[in-house]
Every structure is written in structure tokens, then in C-alpha cells.
Amino acid sequence: KAYAFTHELAPPLDSQRVFLRLSRLDDEDASSTLYGLAALLGAAAVLGLFALYRMVAVQVLFAERRNNFVAAVTHELKTPLTAIRMYGEMLRDGMVQDEATRQEYYATITGEGERLTRLINNVMEHAQLRRGERPMQVVRANVGETVREVLDLMTPHIEREGFAVTLDVPSSLPAVQLDVDAFKQVLFVRDFGPGIAEGQLQTIFEPFFRGESELTRRQKGTGIGLTLVRDLVERMNGYVRGINRSPGLEIRIALSPAR
Fold first, then answer.
1. Within 13 A of 90's CA, how many CA atoms are on the CB side?
2. Which range scores top for mean pLDDT: 51-55, 103-107, 185-189?
3. Where are the domains positioned within the chain?
4. Is the pTM of this model over 0.85?
5. CATH class of the 137-259 domain in this structure
6. Residue 130: its pLDDT value, please?
7. Is the pLDDT reported for residue 28 higher than 70?
8. Shortest CA distance to 256 belongs to which of 195, 178, 162?
9. CA-CA distance, 63 to 76, in Å (whole number)?
10. CA nearest 184: which of 224, 148, 134?
């Protein structure tokens, strides 16, 4: 038994007709075809559900990290603002008579203000990079000279904290392609802390990632510092990765040699 279907098209194609004819399959062919279609639909359903689960899980994880980021930013803003207000009010009300103590409070207010500036700049930089609005000027540059400029700037702060710093740049180091300002932002000193779990060495560069729970974490920060490093380095056609050392974590940056 066969089934026929005819459809007349609407104007201006009313002179055309579409014909569809379906023939009944033999019982043996019909069974094998139905089983094949059922298996195919079952496999498609399983794959679709798995893909949906993965998509939802990624969105939930990202939303959780974003919420943690908001909480971290709120905390990082509140802490210096509280210190600035407290010391500022004490100085305003004449509660500090000792000159040395006043200078200490002035230094604290200045330091907390700089901390706020860094936080705000990082958040704005992250937003610009996400939108592709961060201008880059990749030029041929000497890495050693750029590192020395940063070191000259940071040495007084380093020495004030009781540390010493040395620089060892091979004279044979070739020129590379980089954005000088961006490269200065991503320069790192190796960490001698507990390191990072092996499974998190790639995840640490994702936005808002924190190695600790937001409720129990002991380390400061917002979770976008290493994201900025990765995004800036990639915009300079380089790559970045984390390597566990003994002890600590090393952030390794590779840039393309200058043409």
C-alpha cells in the first residue's frame, strides 16, 4: 500500500505542484529501519542531554565565580576604605598628637589609596580586554631594558619592606615583540608559597578563579590578576603557563622574537 500527497503552491507559484509518494516497507525492512532510527534517536538524545548538562554546568560555575568576584571586590574595597576613613577621622579630630604617629597614619592612608587605585585599574583593564577595547602597541623591544626600568621603579618599595633584589639578564637575549606598558604589568617574581594543585594550573588563568572557598579563604585578591596576565600576553602573540616548583609557583611567559 502506498500513500500519495499533492500540494498546490500559493501565487505566484500556483502553477506548480509538489507530489510526495510513500511506499510501505516490507515487515522485515520496516523492523530493521525502526530499530536503527530508535538507536539513532536514543544516541542523539543522550548526546544532547550531555551537551546541555555541560553547558549548564559551565554557566553555573562561571556564575559562581562571578558572584565570588563581586564578593571579593566588595571585601577588597571595604578594607582600605575602612582604614582610610578611620585614620582620616582621627587626624581630622586632632586625636593624634605624636608627629611620628601622624606620619604613620598618613603613610597608611596613602598606601590604602594606592591599593584602591590598583584594584579599580585591574577591574577596568579586565573589562576593556573582555570587550576588545584595550589598545596595544606591539613593537620591537629589549626585554632587559624594560625589566631594568621596572626594577628601578620598584627597588625603593622592595628595600623598604626589608628585601633585596638582583637582576640577571643574559646579554644574548634577543629582542622580542611586545607592548612595553602591558609587559610591565605582567612582570612577576616567583612565589615561594605552597604552590598550586596540578589540576588547577590551567584554571588559575580563568576569570574570577580562586583556589580557596570565598567563605574560608585567607589570601587577598579578586581572582582577575592572572587573567589579566594571560590576556595581555596573548594580545602580544605570546603565551603564559604556571609551573609548580619546590617550593612555590612560577609563572612563565614566552614572547615572539622580533622580526
1. 18
2. 103-107
3. 2-40, 137-259
4. no
5. alpha beta
6. 78
7. no
8. 178
9. 20
10. 148
